[in-house]
Amino acid sequence: MSNQVKKPVGIMETVLRDAHQSLIATRMPTEIMLPIIDKMDKVGYHAVECWGGATFDASLRFLKEDPWERLRKLRDGFKNTDLQMLFRGQNILGYRPYADDVVYKFVEKSIANGIDVIRIFDCLNDIRNLQAAVDATNEIKKLEGRGKSQVALSYTLGDAYTLEYWAKMAKQIEEMGADSICIKDMAGLLVPYKAAELVKALKESTKLPIQLHTHYTSGVASMTYLKAVEAGVDVIDCAISPFALGTSQPATEVMVETFRGTEYDTGYDQAILSEIADYFRPYREECIESGLMSTKVLGVNIKTLLYQVPGGMLSNMVSQLKEQHAEDKYNDVLEEIPRVRKDCGEPPLVTPSSQIVGTQAVFNVLMGERYKMATGEFKDLLRGKYGQTVKPMNEEVINKVIPGEERFTSRSAEATGHTEPELAGIEEEMKEWKQQEEDVLSYALFPQVATEFFKYRQAQQEQVDVNKADVKNGAYPV
Q1: pTM, 2 dp
Q2: What Å distances lie between residue 459 and 74, 181, 456, CA to CA?
Q3: In this structure, how many other beta carbons lie within 10 angstroms of the beta carbon of residue 380?
Q4: How far apart are the first and last CA of the chain?
Q5: What 8-state DSSP symbol labels residue 9?
Q6: What phi and psi, each to the nearest 5 degrees, are found at residue 433?
Q7: Dihedral (C-alpha) 185, 187, 188, 194: value to the nearest 10 degrees?
Q8: DSSP class of residue 119?
């Protein structure tokens, strides 16, 4: 043991972001997070993921919380730990591409409010849709001395996705100036021995640190982590046990125990981890009792590997079929998904491409004729408005769905006409609500939801009891 070269694996804790996004639809409020921060800060985590992804939208929409305020509170509590967020490339945290000035300002404000690492991904792995966010992070790092960019490979299967493809992409990520690379396996498709091959291939083509992110959906994730760590992966994403497994990540304590006494030993104290787990356990029970955590998402679903469909996409599809009283068509739709995906150039299935492909597959089956009807988003995917796919699209499908239409080959911001600065116009539009610069960004991403939140915030600040207000004479008792 004594002559072993130590290469401890780092762990990023996901309980404050992806774990609750995956298990309880991103509904964990800030007040549940704050009491345990002090303990979490003592673990020595590589980083804690606590922002971005769906947390921004969910805070405003369902929890009536300012996501920026949450970030500032978390930053105050975490004195020694890097904070990480998830960022959808040119789409930021919204569902359309934004102009570069909005991307820049969002990165600047995320770092200013406490984020250290920004994980950036694109649903088509189109490198051009990642560049603006990486450039912004690097520029702010030069000015402020903090802020790192991590670019994620949206992992998927298909003949185009060879080890050479991933290695080439890793090289491009290094050249674009990112600080690290993440293998983002959103559907739990990466099996153990393939993970070892992939990590080795990436390690040969880049010097950047490699982080691995997966979900337990298909039941192999802990073994995948074991093989990946042996192959040299630097950091793995885990969730404290009450919010682990199912559609979430492998359990932090289990991985810490797995590597104890080996060259990969994390050095984390199980006693502290146990206190953190004890803290979250009653909240987990509460979520199960209220139905917020469905036991359906806690099991293993091996169909994920057969059809490459992420857990969230499956549940989406089931509810679409239920609405149409067509549950008996479930298997037909599952078989149609890979065909639709092939027709549109084999994109990885991750937000928003997963929803676009899944919904189209449902239409194809229910209509009894493929592409008799197509969604606006599917048409935009064919038009090239989301960026370039790895493989060419099916010309017959293009001619049926968007006959004779213009197709785009530029990056998404240009293909959708978002090349001119947008920020000043957005600020003008929402100026009556602006109390901090960050409000402009909240409004830019979710105009309706943010406006509702601003109205709620104003009522709280003025302590207006809306029920007692004399609206006719404009008298609000405070």
Answers
A1: 0.92
A2: 25, 44, 5
A3: 19
A4: 69
A5: P
A6: -100, -10
A7: -60
A8: E
- CA dihedral over 433, 435, 438, 440, signed as positive or negative: positive
Give the span between the Cα atoms of 14 and 233, in whole angstroms.
18
* pLDDT, tens digit, 9 for 90 and up, residues 208-246: 999 999 999 999 999 999 999 999 999 999 999 999 999
Which tokens is 283 given? Answer: 């909240």
Buried (b) or exposed (e) across 217-234, using 16+ Cβ within 10 A? Answer: bbbbbbebbbbbbbbebb
Whole-number Å distance between alpha carbons of 416 and 410: 9
**Averaged pLDDT score across all residues of the chain:** 93
Q: What is the mean pLDDT of residues 318-336?
A: 89
Token pair 């036991």 in the structure block, residue: 295
Mean pLDDT along residues 440-456: 97
Cβ neighbourhood burial of 474 (10 Å; 0-12, 13-18, 19+): exposed
In single-letter form, the type of residue at position 318 comes to: V
How far apart are alpha carbons 268 and 266 in whole angstroms?
A: 5
CA separation for the pair 149, 141 (Å, rounded)? 10
Q: What is the pLDDT of residue 372?
A: 97
Q: Reply yes or no: is the peptide bond before residue 338 cis, omega within 30 of 0.
A: no
Contact call for residues 138 and 419 (beta carbons, < 8 A): no
Q: From CA 401, how far away is CA 423, in angstroms rounded?
A: 34
